[in-house]
Design brief:
single chain, 4-stranded antiparallel sheet, 3-stranded antiparallel sheet, alpha+beta, Creatine Amidinohydrolase, globular
């Protein structure tokens, strides 16, 4: 797909000069009003995955048909998820090391694609409901599901990278937010608190407790900063399917009463905003942005409920968020 907006140049025109997008209008009456916001770039065609890589059922058609997957995973599935989660964590860390001014999100996506394929895994997002890329790259005010494109990362941006790999028949899903060069203190604090909120949510995982405890812990972490906790997008069950019927709210709601049980697997992935939690979807039908254009950050891990708490299947040494910051 190709955006009609084009790609903004490194040097923007003066107010009364023609807009860079080619509309024929003056810059001040065209794209100046969105200056500072993320603009759509060009999205290249979906890249092929080699035939020798095993593929999930939706890979060829883009059509996803859910089935009744058990919430409690067998020991075999859990061990396979450990391997898939470990790989996803390593790929995310590699992608994060690429984040720098001048790098395009397309370049990051290509590296993620090649890393999964080299490990014998299918990048789970490719052709999932038609999604065209191997990861999501959500910059600044993009809440989630940003499609990698020709946009160049700029000094001061924040960039979330969300990767999922399908290995040995199961998915591993994780994301983190990275700084692009020198980032302002407000954005640094937002990212730090978002990571802490995820870990507070993980600490609330205990068999016998309701899922609402996770949302309560996340909301309480963000409340002193008056941050918004996005409600429209939630954590999800995961296993042989990319998304199962478990829903993990990142805010407190007493109706989220499903009891956590040993052997359950799901993601915890809070999206935290500096301003409103309201959102808009770009015309690509994927990219969700904050309605007020203010920044948002996200962190995610895939979790296994254990006898006494949680096992972080996508964490550990060498990952983008290896453990709770206060334990490092």
């Amino acid at each position: 797909m190709t955006s009609t907006l084009g790609t903004a140049p490194t040097t923007l025109p003066q107010a009364n000069e023609p807009c860079w997008c080619g509309s024929g209008r003056k810059y001040k009456r065209c794209h100046k009003k969105s200056e500072g916001r993320v603009l759509q770039g060009t999205v290249t065609p979906m890249r092929a995955v080699p035939d020798h890589i095993a593929r999930p059922p939706y890979a060829d058609t883009g059509e996803y048909e859910a089935w009744d997957e058990g919430r409690i995973k067998s020991p075999d599935i859990i061990e396979r998820m450990r391997a898939s989660g470990k790989l996803a964590g390593e790929v995310l860390a590699m992608a994060g090391e690429m984040v720098a001014p001048g790098v395009t999100t397309e370049e990051i996506d290509i590296a993620v694609h090649e890393a999964f394929v080299a490990a014998g895994a299918y990048p789970s997002t490719i052709n999932y409901h038609g999604y065209p890329k191997a990861c999501c790259t959500s910059v600044n005010e993009v809440i989630c599901h940003g499609i990698p494109d020709s946009r160049v990362l700029r000094e001061g941006d924040i960039c979330n990278i969300d990767v999922t790999g399908w290995l040995n028949g199961v998915h591993g899903d994780t994301n983190a937010t990275f700084f692009v060069g020198d980032v302002d203190p407000e954005s640094q604090q937002l990212v730090r608190v978002t990571e802490e909120a995820m870990w507070r949510g993980i600490e609330a995982v205990k068999p016998g407790s309701p899922l609402s405890d996770i949302g309560r812990a996340i909301e309480l972490t963000c409340k002193p900063y008056k941050y918004g906790v996005v409600r429209a997008f939630v954590g999800h069950g995961i296993g042989e399917q990319f998304h199962t019927d478990i829903q993990v709210l990142h805010y407190y709601d007493s109706r989220s009463s499903t009891i956590m049980r040993e052997g359950m697997t799901f993601t915890i992935e809070p999206m935290i905003t500096l301003g409103t939690i309201n959102y808009k979807i770009w015309d690509d039908d994927w990219t969700a942005v904050t309605s007020d254009g203010k920044r948002t950050a996200q962190y995610e891990h895939t979790i296994l409920v254990t006898a006494d708490g949680a096992d972080v299947l996508t964490g550990g040494p060498g990952t983008a968020s290896p453990t709770a910051p206060w334990l490092r």
